[in-house]
Automatic annotation (TrEMBL):
Compositionally skewed regions (Basic and acidic residues) per UniProt: 393-402
Chain ranges of the VWFA domain: 467-650
Protein name: VWFA domain-containing protein
Gene3D superfamilies on file: von Willebrand factor, type A domain (3.40.50.410)
Location of the region described as Disordered in the Swiss-Prot/TrEMBL record: 393-415
CDD domains for this protein: vWFA
Native species: Nonomuraea rhodomycinica
């Protein structure tokens, strides 16, 4: 047997590794942390294309291709090509007839010339009068028949794409077959309207007339869609002409259909198609600016494709409420952009689908939301980025996961619980597995194997390691967004949350946001959190909440970190309302510094990360450092996460 190897072209590479949907979530996370909503972040991701998949197009790439093709079609030619061709053939036939009559001195020749002189200027009317004229010139007769054949082919081709070639041979039997096809088609549509149509009816119709439909529709709905789009394009062509051109071409169409005996059938078909697809732009004018005259069938094809591209462009933009990739017509993509674009679209749909199915996105009431799983992933990604920015020597200290970190062994063991960092007691774990029926015959060997479940695991108990009560105070004021530090602050909070959850599960972390008021932020709401468009930086209230958190954990080591870009401008009054004043009032500063003093009495070191170089802020944080003994940092927004995480780890190691 011979084998031949070559590049694979039939769709996407079947051996390509599966796309990691988490990378798509990370891409979305950057936009979400900057203030974008999940639905806008997903839409922007799908527009750009999949990260790392350079051979795949995004929606923007498809849009550019669609717009390029629309420009080409608009510049492809003029709509009056059939009229121009018909006039030329009519003038040619009349000229040939005059040339035949001129040498003849008889009265009959002069009478015929007077008939030709009296022909109306309108092409359709002239053709109508000449339909009963007895031509003296054989050449003129042939030219006139050529004109009649042209109109018949063009008119029918404007309705049925495959009829121009079928009618190339002027065989009466071919025309009779077209009449019968239209009668059967209308009968089938009427039967379907009564609810009596069956798939066998359509199969029988296609067996008899399938060669007249090069699109090879699979069912009646698809056939109706094909015919309706073409009929609507014909109407748009007429609507795009001048009134004189429209009247002249309409007369030619009606005259041609009457002579072919198709007027009634075509009228029935048009009414059925319009009733089934009124959503199509039936009478919307379109402008074609090319110089080349187009035949009627070619002009209708161009306008049909333009309408497809217009609808496809609207779907690809995805800028309407509730937009989804499922709204994009795959058949329209295939017609306009080819098979490879269909594969690209399916890859984008798979990402949108997988993000929901794998539990990263939740669609609730038509609105996309991040799930807790997605927020944890964003925190882990933020933490990895923080560690990757640290130098290699320090990174080894930060990401250490050895068993000794849990403390000295005591000699006893206990069942494993989620978050435990103690080393696994292998002997006790295996014994539990055997006792619980996990002993199995090893496949392919004479020995045995132990199958373990989660309940079988035990960890070796260690001496208790000190835990920390961590408070991260994040400024939510509008100035954070104006200075471009908002995304960095959220990313830092997520990274710290992920660090504590993974490396220090015994710690109690609380993230507090503050603007005119302060509030505790839950981990799940961090990613989608937006800044507050209010006046006030109420650090006083934030320190009050942080103090209550520390007091609830009196045996924990207190860690307080403050991220802000401005001095306190608000404080909490006795009645619970916020008082704002700028420049800061003496009362605001006194109350805020009083809370700093309370932190000092709790033995909580308060480190401030200053995101602005404002002189008032410098004076305030210097006073905080003097009273508390904490440190002051002035990192750039890009290095904020590195500073906060490094400082937290330094404090944990010191204790």
């Amino acid at each position: 047997m011979a084998y031949r190897y070559g590049e694979y072209h039939d769709g996407p590479d079947p051996l390509a590794p599966p796309y990691d949907v988490r990378a798509a979530l990370d891409e979305m996370g950057d936009a979400i942390l900057s203030g974008s909503t999940p639905v806008h972040a997903l839409r922007d991701l799908l527009k750009r294309g999949l990260p790392g998949a350079h051979d795949r197009k995004g929606l923007d790439d498809m849009l550019r291709e669609v717009r390029r093709r629309r420009r080409e079609l608009r510049e492809s030619g003029r709509l009056d090509g059939t009229l121009e061709h018909a006039r030329a053939l009519l003038d040619k036939a009349i000229g040939q007839e005059r040339a035949e009559l001129f040498p003849d001195p008889s009265d009959d020749a002069r009478l015929r010339e007077s008939e030709l002189d009296a022909l109306p200027d309108d092409t359709a009317s002239a053709i109508q009068e000449l339909s009963s004229y007895e031509w003296r010139s054989a050449a003129a007769r042939r030219t006139f028949e050529e004109l009649r054949d042209l109109l018949r082919r063009e008119v029918l081709d404007s309705q049925f794409r495959g009829l121009r070639d079928a009618l190339a041979d002027p065989d009466p039997a071919a025309m009779e077959r077209v009449r019968q096809m239209m009668a059967d088609l209308n009968d089938m549509l009427d039967k379907d309207a009564r609810g009596e149509h069956t798939p066998d009816d359509f199969a029988a119709f296609m067996d008899k007339y399938g060669d007249l439909f090069p699109e090879h529709p699979r069912d009646l709905e698809e056939l109706v869609d094909i015919l309706a789009r073409r009929a609507a394009a014909t109407q748009r062509m007429l609507a795009s002409m001048t009134p004189a051109q429209r009247e002249e071409l309409n007369n030619l169409i009606n005259q041609t259909l009457d002579q072919a005996g198709l007027s009634d059938q075509m009228r029935r078909l048009g009414e059925s198609l319009y009733a089934r697809r009124p959503d199509l732009a039936w009478n919307t004018p379109e402008r074609l600016s090319g110089e080349e005259p187009l035949g009627m069938g070619d002009a209708v094809s161009a306008l049909e494709e333009l309408a497809d591209l217009t609808r496809l462009e609207s779907a690809l933009r995805q800028d309407y409420p509730g937009a989804r990739l499922d709204d994009i017509d795959e058949a329209a993509v295939r017609r306009a952009l080819g098979r490879s674009a269909v594969d690209d679209l399916e890859a984008l749909r798979r990402i949108e689908r997988e993000l929901e199915e794998q539990g990263y996105l939740l669609r609730r009431r038509g609105k996309l939301e991040l799930t807790p799983k997605a927020v944890r992933r964003l925190g882990e990604t933020a933490l990895r980025r923080v560690f990757s920015s640290l130098d290699a020597g320090r990174r080894g200290d930060h990401d250490q996961r050895d068993a000794g970190a849990a403390g000295e062994l005591t000699g006893s063991s206990r069942p494993w619980r989620f978050g435990d960092e103690q080393p696994i007691d292998v002997v006790r774990t295996l014994v539990n597995g055997v006792r619980n029926g996990g002993l199995r015959q090893a496949r392919g060997t004479a020995g045995s194997a132990v199958r373990l479940s989660v309940d079988d695991f035990e960890v070796a108990e260690t001496e208790r390691r000190s835990a920390a009560a961590v408070c991260l105070l994040v400024d939510l004021s509008y100035s954070m967004a104006l200075r471009g530090t908002w995304a960095a602050a959220k990313q830092t909070a997520l990274a710290l949350q992920a660090l504590v959850a993974s490396k220090f599960p015994q710690d109690a972390v609380q993230i507090i946001g503050f603007s005119n008021y302060a509030r505790v932020l839950q981990p799940d709401e961090l990613a989608g959190l937006d800044w507050d468009m209010v006046q006030g930086t109420n650090l006083h209230h934030a320190l009050l909440i942080a103090g209550r958190h520390l007091d609830r954990h009196p045996d924990f080591e207190p860690v307080v970190l403050v991220v802000t870009d401005g001095e306190p401008t608000a404080h909490l009054m006795r009645n619970g309302h916020s008082a704002f004043e700028w420049p800061p009032s003496a009362e605001t500063l006194e109350l805020t510094l009083a809370e700093v003093d309370k932190m000092t009495r709790r033995r909580a070191t308060l480190n401030v990360f200053m995101l602005a170089a404002d002189e008032r802020l410098k004076e305030f944080v210097d006073e905080v450092a003097r009273r508390n003994g904490g440190r002051v940092f002035s990192p750039s927004a890009e290095r904020l996460g590195e500073y906060v995480v490094s400082d937290f780890l330094r404090l944990r190691r010191a204790r």
